[in-house]
Amino acid sequence: MKVIVVKDQAAGGKEGFKVFKDALDNGAKVFGLATGSTPVTTYQEIVKSDLDFSNCTSVNLDEYVGIAPDNDQSYKYFMQSHLFDAKPFKESFLPNGLASDPAAEVKRYDKVIDEHPIDLQILGIGRNGHIGFNEPGTARDVTTHVVDLTQSTIEANARFFASENDVPKQAFSMGLASIMKSKHLLLEAFGEDKADAVKGMIEGPDSVDCPASILQNHDNVTVIIDEAAASKLSNKY
């Protein structure tokens, strides 16, 4: 696990951009993408650049259940506004939040991942250590699945909605086994509220109590964290 500590999220975005550029320069064709506030500065750096993804494929981590793609809180909408409008991919895959048959949608998305092995997957981390929407206690061998979001995750996401009651209670998410199949994992975390989760991921035991700790078992992980997120680490990086 390569750990890079930066001053703040803006600096983290510049480091994240370097990882994307290096992957693209070295032939990466499939990029696993994430939403939320964490990857925004990395996407901003990509948008400002001359990187070209027109021959590449994107596969997103997750999507809320019950939200239409054109809803401004959907992850499809997020990706369009933060990246795809400026940097279109040849094809882009996200779970269908309005799927009438969730079990069939899970199988469809597993097939997408199997047919498009991910070269570089960007991840954030939740305050409870989740990656994607794989909450504490999630089985390590699970692939795409429907997740019941924990109260802490609902509260964390409420800032994006008019009220907490509007936050979806379920989401489709790549499973931990799906994520671990990616050739290179890039995890970013910024802010003091992520410090406990970061410590658990890097220095804690490999435990289902901190889903991100599974990354200790992957042979190609880059972690970019700011000084606040790194503040509880015992070792200096």
Automatic annotation (TrEMBL):
Reactions catalysed according to its record? alpha-D-glucosamine 6-phosphate + H2O = beta-D-fructose 6-phosphate + NH4(+)
Q: Where is the active site?
A: 62, 128, 130, 135
For this protein, the record's CDD domains field holds: GlcN6P_deaminase (cd01399)
Q: Where is the Glucosamine/galactosamine-6-phosphate isomerase domain?
A: 25-222
Entries under PROSITE patterns matching the protein: GLC_GALNAC_ISOMERASE
Which Gene Ontology biological process is one annotated for this entry?
carbohydrate metabolic process
**Can the keyword Hydrolase be found in this entry's annotation?**
yes
Describe the function of this protein. Answer: Catalyzes the reversible isomerization-deamination of glucosamine 6-phosphate (GlcN6P) to form fructose 6-phosphate (Fru6P) and ammonium ion.
Homology family: Belongs to the glucosamine/galactosamine-6-phosphate isomerase family. NagB subfamily.
Q: What protein am I looking at?
A: Glucosamine-6-phosphate deaminase
Source species, please?
Lactiplantibacillus fabifermentans DSM 21115
What would be the name of the gene that encodes this protein?
Answer: nagB
